[in-house]
Amino acid sequence: MSKTTLEYLRFDGELDDRNKLKNVAARLDGRKVKLTGFSDYAQVKAIESKCDFPTRHDWDSFFRDAKNMDEMKAGERPDTVYLSNLPIKWFCPRHQENDDKVKPSESLFKRIFEKFGEVRVIDIPICDPYRNQMKTGLTGLKNFSFDNDMYFEG
Q: Quick one: which of 12, 63, 65, 146 has the most CB atoms within 10 Å?
């Protein structure tokens, strides 16, 4: 229940198949139900609710108008996801699992995360051989820790 007053009760439900939505809503709409604690019958009004998630326009507007973000900086674009403390062993080929100097595989990383949507570009700093030669502000690398051999960021 997401909203309740003495005159109005709101229940939200979900269906596994969107194709069944019209049929289910039609069967529920207009029905009368007896609720415990109420003397009168309640009439059901079944409708498809609007999505609470932002639209593409809302999403683009937020990032365009945000004063503290710069789309030109890595990690501040609206289509960028930054992940850290990922275990290297989860993203390395099986034949390299026991190698001490193993690095995560960008292709395996991409294949895993493409299950959630299109992945256009991947950046795994520890896989870039030139990253250590770059100026500190540009590298994207974090300070050294003893976990560097076990975890990575992408």
A: 63
